[in-house]
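Sequence in, structure out.
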Amino acid sequence: MILFIVFTGCTKKENYTGTSKVILKYAIFSTPQFASLEKELIADFESKNPDIKVEMRIEPYNAHHQKIQIELAGGTAPDLWLTDGVFIMEWAERGVIEELTELFNSWMKPEEYFGLQALRDPDGKLWGIPKEIQTFGLFYNKDVFDRYGVPYPNESWTWDDLLEAAKALTKDTDGDERIDIYGLGGQSLAANVANMIYQNGGSILDKRRRNSLLETPEAREAIKFVFSLYKQRLMPTIPETSKAFGHELDMFQMGRMAMFWGNYSYVNAIKATQPLLNYSVAFPPKKVSRHCYYDPNAFVITRGRPSVIKKAAWRYIEYHSGLEAQTKLGREGEGLPFNRTAVTLVVDTEYAKKHNLKVFAEMVEQSVDFDVNGCWRQWIDVFSRELEKGLLGIVPTENVADNAHREVQKVLDSYYSSEN
């Protein structure tokens, strides 16, 4: 209620300081390729809101989040900043960001947007507003499929279809007993396993995000299936990828990988570097469902800022959520719009139709959040380590689920011990 009172009276054209400008300190993560787009949006916002001056800082992903951690501890954080959605509950539970539920319901129309659930806590409180959304699709290189006479993926594909196609497309082309074309790739071992758990009808944590579910049959079967892909050398391990070819996207564009699970951020990366690449995107295969996790990059407002700063920050969020900005971001940026009308426009272009990019939009409604809670950063690290031990043969595959369950639960119990 206090937050709502602070914001009451906010209007898009209100001049808060007379002739002086409100200085809004703003920090985001991005790559040089997309940084200029954000600068264009800021210039447009300032032209429409002459009483606000946005001072932006852009840094790479890791450097940005590391600096935010330090600044929050020292009380010098920017007013408005972008966070990976997987960290949103960490900031919320630490009490360093504003709750935005009342603002969103009062000043925006909920029915015009989607992809917000991952930014809500178990009680339904909203802590961030998406700048963009990342959902998963199955990218496939048509030239590789055509070369070996393998049918393209379709909506009926199951895990078995994925496995058979990966086998048919994994090739040692020169007989040196080294894989030259991998059938399948993914973003990380933990991401691959998590998505398979969700597709198998399972989850990593329970609904309150306090207990591990990695000992369940759904999780065990998913871990076993993903490990079988690696052990049959149908997917490259990270060391193999980095040593031989670089990033998996590079392998895909070089024709060294037939398929890979990837999110929307790769679309404009491919468009910028290889606009003529003969590829398309299919729905992920399904077992019980085709669920994958989705991850919004979200705007958050630092808690405790003066009312005039909070109002300026919200006006920038409103601008960024509008049709014009969201459409531009979807067509030229790194993520999928969360504005429903903008999504429709983005997937209706000739390029989008050619590469079946509507998959990403439709996957928003079929996706779940990445079991996000206040200690996501800690438990995902433990989860990843236990998976890697199994993949490297340090522990038997059949023990991976139990070990991961035990170690993840230790993190959860330690973090939430004060609640007991």
